[in-house]
Design brief:
With about 120 residues, the protein is an all-beta fold. It has one domain: Sandwich (Immunoglobulin-like), CATH 2.60.40.790. About 0% of the residues lie in helices and about 40% in strands. It is built from no helices and 8 strands. Strands 1-6-5-4 form a 4-stranded antiparallel β-sheet, with no helix packed on it. The model is unreliable at about 1-10 (pLDDT under 50). Belongs to the small heat shock protein (HSP20) family. It comes from Paraburkholderia monticola. This is Heat-shock protein Hsp20.
Length: about 120
């Protein structure tokens, strides 16, 4: 697997596991709404993009001492060892965790070339 590309402002923690026929990806996206998640697959490269919007409420007479919660967009891209069957891939978002089921593309029968 190739190294990931991270946005410096926010990082997305992921776990990737592999079985004989598929990859499984779990990505932590706390505070993100399902409608603000975009997953793209291009061959063996998976890209996850998300947007977080936080209210910056400041009440009269209050001042912010520290603000650590991120607001904005962040993304993560990584390459897998085999191409993904995009048509069979599935994504589910529950309790702040994005779960991807990414079946590997069948390599098909190998063709033997005769040497002349």
């Amino acid at each position: 697997m190739l190294p990931a590309q991270d946005n410096e402002l926010a990082s997305m923690k992921i776990d990737v596991t592999e079985s004989e026929g598929a990859y499984s990806v779990k990505a932590e996206l706390p505070g993100v709404e399902k409608k603000d998640i975009d997953v793209q697959i291009d061959g063996r490269v998976v890209s996850i993009n998300a947007k977080v919007e936080r209210n910056k409420e400041e009440k009269e007479g209050e001042r912010v001492i520290r603000r650590e919660r991120y607001s904005g967009t962040f993304s993560r891209s990584f390459a897998l060892g085999a191409e993904v069957d995009e048509a069979s891939a599935k994504a589910e978002y529950k309790d702040g965790v994005l779960s991807l089921s990414l079946p590997k593309k069948s390599t098909g029968d190998r063709k033997r070339l005769s040497v002349e």
